[in-house]
Design brief:
The structure holds 2 protein chains of 2 kinds. Chain A is built from 21 helices and 4 strands. Chain A is an all-alpha fold. Chain A has 2 domains: 38-335, MetI-like (MetI-like fold, Orthogonal Bundle), CATH 1.10.3720.10; 373-588, MetI-like fold, CATH 1.10.3720. In chain A, strand 3 (527-530) and strand 4 form a beta hairpin. By secondary structure, chain B is α/β, with parallel strands linked by helices. Chain B has 2 domains: 9-258, 3-Layer(aba) Sandwich (Rossmann fold); 287-433, Arc Repressor Mutant, subunit A (Orthogonal Bundle). In chain B, 41% of the residues lie in helices and 20% in strands. In chain B, the strands form 4 sheets. In chain B, strands 6-7-8-3-9-10 form a 6-stranded mixed β-sheet, sandwiched between helices. In chain B, helix 8 packs across helix 10 (318-330), helix 11 runs antiparallel to helix 12 and helix 14 (390-398) packs across helix 15. The longest helix of chain B is centred in the C-terminal third of the chain and has 17 residues, at 403-419. Mean pLDDT of chain B is 84; it is low at 1-6, 266-274 and 439-443. Classes of the chains: A mainly alpha, B alpha/beta. At the A-B interface, helix 7, helix 8 and helix 12 of A face strand 6, helix 2, helix 4 and helix 5 of B.
């Protein structure tokens, strides 16, 4: 039954011929080489320029950097923000590989690391800022590096968790025979990591990194200008430029910043992500060639140029030496797959875990009773419910608005392929750049911020709903749609019988992402200002923001803890169940 | 099975068994029970068994990938503690790294041994030449056809010049003609005496392949996996498929494999004595498959057919054909003797009648001859709601099988029960329930 009769033809399929481009490759230095050299030089120059300005002296409150609203300085500010993003990305990558590798290869560590990861990715990153800013400033006294580090750390925590999860998942689902082959051929741990594990994980990791990076702009903007402990900290960058423009009520400057931001997102996409996506195509696991590959002119340029290949050949002995060194350092793959360790040790390990969790709980309870009191906890809980209501309303409204739009787009493949980059762009455009306009609108039309903050939270979150609605609609097989036309399903029935079941899984994915984004955004959406006017909604986000500004540690901790509890609880009890339903019932 | 200590035994398996713990501490599931076996110097040894006979597990224990629960594997007399350095494996799914070129894939094992790059290159080129892939050194696996990919798999193993070459169903992922071609070339290489290894161990479920390639065939039985016996092929190489001895051997092995209780050598087979109907495994086939097979057999003028011939006509591997035969025998639709399958009267009726009548026949046979189905119907009748969550039955199978197999048993039982209209199944609520008009149990 498994041998299809049709496939038993001769094995005469010709191996694919070399691509014409490869044949056309010119020997010697060509135009492409010139472009590559130029590109590398420009990049190095930029990094050097930006790097030197991070070392300026900083002695708050006497000497503190200021941000000029002259648009001529914008390129340099944008470059500094971008460098922060890339440093955070590099840090995330290192963390991902180390954490994911340990979690996947050590059974005991896995039992701690994976649930911890689950919790960490639910904690609102912005709430952390106050803690990290003070910490890092103390770490690097007299230099801007402390603020830089705090900002980079905020971006890092916003993008690292789902990258780590993706890497861990890839390691857990490595094809069994490939693992066996690498074991039998006696590859060292390092060789297995570089030849099997990283390549297998590359594509999902890259997509997650891209998503995270897009979301990271929001945190760059939020972390560059922050008030902690009654003091405003400013770190030159595009985010602090916007903050300064808001304080000065300068709409033109905000417009310039938005244009710059859009340009930067496009440039990073063209110069960095697209070439990477095109390059990563070789890591596809299906052994047969795939039809649609991503195109990238930068990648074509690099592959056409001779210089990079010369460089690769020249560095081969170096890589060989590194391979030996690291193989020696990390040793051989464990000889036998461990299929049962000593149960006594396991019990001890479990006991230790429970003790740890128990003592943490005790500390927490002690803290609540002595520092803030139960009454405050109840108040914060009520605020949490308020913010939850906002998040829910946001989800419902953006679903009602964007799902039909997304489905309409997704059903037209050509339109979808054209609009998808646009939606991706909108999703990564930091919503806090648009906040000032919305705030102005609220002030002038007397809209209460209680309702208005929902709109602000939605500015970023809604795109995930739209994005996934498009993806979901695209995943509905066209023969099912033809069948629906054929039997005359239309209107509401068409939605109930075909579309909603078809896009349900995608909607759940979008909903999880959107609600996570919305919780985080609530910290900057429930308190907004224009010039000296500040609007404050009542909610958990505003509570955290105000406690942060005052430097009220107990209340900051309580607020973050409560929000984490809400997010984790909501994930556990709502999203996870919806996932299960989607898997069991609506799996296409 | 010779446990005598010959110096020429390259790999020796001594009283090895393998158990996996069942979920929820319900004891163990025995995959392999007390297996002893040696790979002699200079021979091609085939491990032949149906799925579930643990042949793949045995291969992995012999290669050092899995640790046995009991017993020892010795390689050149030394107990094996990890991956065996004296062997290389060719995998069913090729197991090539798609991001490495043919050359880099072949060099993989050499790189792991830190052979210098120049020597690596030279040896890899030689191995690529042996398998006839020169010119493709810089190609990526996805540019190659299945047959060429497996050639890379062979080159990757050859380049290490392993003492023993392990092959895990190396041709079963290829189409029939490609497999035939590659199998012939490997055999030529072996017969020419230029083979890079001194012995070959091949795991297969293809009877003809085993007889064609091997000097000695070890036949494995299921539940638990064990050695039923071994056969010497005793033919001049290359083995001539058209010789009477070749055909007789193939027929003989078919007859052994369709009859789990037949003694292969003087060794008695352990008796199964389990009372629960849930301990006997249902063959995993759909009812449509059974009737398809029976219709085909019924079309034969003499109302029977030889299994090798059927397998050939249907292009089915043993693993796909034998479960269908098993199910037909279990249901009393067919009988098997000496590698021939023959329809019973009921079987002929079932294969040729209308769909409604065939459903009645199937129900009657299923209730009478498949205890697990009648047990499910009884249990459902005892419930007031006439319905039970499927987990309940899953637990019963779970006592005898590992969870994935228990789930497959449930799925097969549900397929049969639904076809026979004995009970119905709600996939969302995961409940089994009796159909509206109750079924009369044939008492």
């Amino acid at each position: 039954m498994t041998t299809p009769m049709t496939s038993s033809g001769l094995d005469t399929r010709l191996p694919s011929l070399p691509e014409p481009e490869a044949l056309r490759r010119s020997e010697g230095f060509g135009l492409a080489d010139g472009a590559v050299v130029l590109g590398v030089l420009v990049l190095l120059g930029l990094i050097g320029h930006v790097g030197s300005s991070a070392m300026v002296s900083f002695r708050p409150p006497e000497i503190s950097p200021t941000v000029s609203l002259d648009p001529r300085f914008l390129p340099s500010y944008a470059a500094r923000s971008t460098v922060r993003m890339f440093i955070a990305l590099a840090a995330s990558l290192v963390f991902t590989v180390v954490y994911g590798w340990i979690a996947a290869h050590n059974r005991r560590a896995e039992r701690v690391l994976v649930p911890l990861l689950d919790i960490l990715q639910s904690v609102p990153v912005l709430g952390f800022l106050s803690i990290t800013v003070t910490g890092f400033i103390a770490l690097f006294p007299g230099s801007l590096l402390g603020l830089e580090a705090a900002s980079i750390f905020a971006i890092f925590t916003s993008q690292v968790w789902n990258m780590t999860f993706s890497f861990y998942q890839s390691l857990r689902t490595l094809p069994k025979e490939l693992v066996e082959a690498t074991t039998l051929f006696r590859l060292s741990r390092w060789q297995r990591l570089t030849r099997l594990e990283l390549p297998t994980a590359a594509i999902p990791l890259l997509w997650n990194a891209m998503m995270s990076f897009g979301g990271g702009w929001f945190f760059v903007a939020a972390s560059e200008a922050i008030s902690v402990l009654n003091r405003d900290y400013t770190l030159p960058g595009i985010g602090s430029y916007v903050a300064a423009a808001v304080a000065a009520r300068d709409l033109r400057a905000i417009g310039w910043a938005m244009a710059t931001m859009a340009l930067v997102i496009l440039l990073v996409d063209q110069l960095f992500w697209r070439p990477l996506v095109a390059w990563s195509d070789r890591f596809r696991l299906e052994l047969s060639g795939s039809g649609n590959t991503q195109q990238s002119w930068v990648f074509d340029l690099i592959t056409t140029a001779r210089l990079p290949r010369l460089f690769a050949t020249a560095s081969a002995p170096l890589i060989e030496a590194l391979d030996r060194l690291m193989s020696g350092l990390f040793g051989q793959v464990q000889d036998h797959q461990n299929d049962g360790a000593a149960p006594g040790q396991d019990r001890l390990f479990n006991l230790g875990l429970w003790l740890l969790v128990g003592s943490l709980l005790a500390v927490l309870l002690h803290f609540i009773f002595t520092q803030v009191g139960l009454l405050e906890v109840a108040t914060v809980f009520k605020l949490g419910v308020l913010t939850l209501a906002r998040v829910l309303l946001l989800l419902v409204v953006s679903t009602l608005i964007w799902t039909p739009v997304g489905v309409a787009i997704g059903f037209q493949p050509r339109l979808a392929s054209r609009l998808q980059p646009l939606v991706q762009f909108l999703a990564s455009f930091p919503a806090n750049f648009i906040f000032p306009f919305a705030t102005l609108l609220f002030i002038h039309s007397h809209i209460s911020i209680g309702w208005g903050s929902i709109l602000l939270m939605a500015l970023g979150a809604q795109w995930y709903i739209l994005f996934n609605a498009i993806a979901g609609a695209q995943s509905i097989p066209s023969d099912l749609r033809e069948m629906a036309d054929d039997v005359g399903l239309r209107g509401l029935q068409r939605w109930r019988k075909l579309i909603i079941p078809g896009i349900f899984s995608a909607w759940v994915t979008g909903g999880v992402t959107a609600s996570g984004g919305a919780w985080n955004a609530s910290i900057v959406s429930e308190v907004v200002s224009w010039g000296s006017t500040t609007l404050t909604a009542s909610g958990l986000g505003a509570y955290i923001a105000e406690a942060t500004a005052r430097g009220d540690w107990p209340r900051i901790s309580l607020g973050i803890g409560m929000m984490s509890l809400f997010v984790v609880g909501f994930n556990r009890f709502v999203w996870r169940r919806l996932y299960a339903v989607a898997e069991a019932r609506y799996h296409l | 099975m010779s446990a005598s200590s010959q110096p020429l035994d390259l790999i020796r398996v001594e009283h090895v068994s393998k158990r996996f713990p069942l979920p929820d501490g319900k004891g163990d599931f025995t995959v392999l029970g007390d297996v002893s076996l040696s790979v002699h110097h200079g021979e091609v040894l085939a491990l032949l068994g149906r799925s579930g006979s643990g042949k793949s597990t045995l291969l992995r224990i012999m290669s050092g990938l899995i640790r046995p629960s009991q017993g020892v594997v010795r390689s050149n007399g030394q107990p094996l503690l990890g991956a065996n350095p004296n062997l290389a494996m060719v995998f069913q799914s090729f197991a090539l790294l798609p991001w490495l070129t043919v050359q880099d894939n072949v060099e993989l094992g050499l790189a792991a041994r830190h052979v210098p790059p120049d020597e690596r290159r030279e040896r890899a080129l030689k191995a690529i030449d042996i398998v006839g892939l020169d010119g493709f050194e810089n190609a990526y696996p996805k540019e190659l056809s299945g047959g060429m990919k497996q050639r890379v798999g062979f080159a990757r193993a050859f380049v290490l010049e392993p003492e023993v070459l392990f092959m895990d169903e190396p041709f079963s992922a290829l189409d029939v003609l490609t497999a035939e071609n590659l199998r012939g070339e490997i055999d030529d290489l072996w017969n020419a005496g230029t083979f890079p290894s001194s012995s070959i161990l091949i795991v297969t479920h293809n009877i003809e392949e085993a007889v064609y390639l091997a000097d000695r065939i070890v036949i494995l039985g299921s539940n638990p996996g064990r050695i039923r016996g071994e056969l010497q092929v005793n033919m001049p190489r290359p083995h001539d498929r058209n010789s009477p001895r070749f055909k007789a051997l193939v027929d003989h092995i078919y007859s052994i494999m369709t009859n789990p209780d037949q003694v292969v050598t003087g060794e008695p087979t352990p008796q199964r004595s389990s009372a629960s109907p849930f301990s006997r495994a249902l063959p995993h086939v759909r009812v449509g498959g059974i009737s398809g097979l029976l219709e085909l057999v019924a079309d034969n003028p003499d109302g029977g057919g030889s299994l090798p011939e059927l397998a050939h006509r249907l292009q089915l591997e043993v693993d796909d054909l034998l479960p269908l035969v098993d199910a037909s025998v279990l249901l009393g639709f067919a009988e098997v003797a000496d590698g021939d399958v023959r329809l019973t009267t009921i079987g002929r009726d079932f294969a040729t009648t209308t769909i409604l009548r065939s459903k009645d026949l199937f129900r009657q046979q299923a209730l009478g001859r498949v205890p697990v189905l009648s047990s499910i119907v009884h249990t459902l009748k005892e419930k007031e709601s006439q319905s039970i969550r499927s987990d309940f039955f899953l637990d019963m199978w779970d006592d005898h099988f590992p969870l994935p197999e228990a789930e497959r048993q449930l799925a097969t039982a549900v397929d049969w029960g639904r076809y026979a209209e004995l009970f119905e199944f709600d996939a969302i609520e995961e409940r089994l329930y009796l159909p509206q008009s109750p079924v009369a149990l044939s008492s």
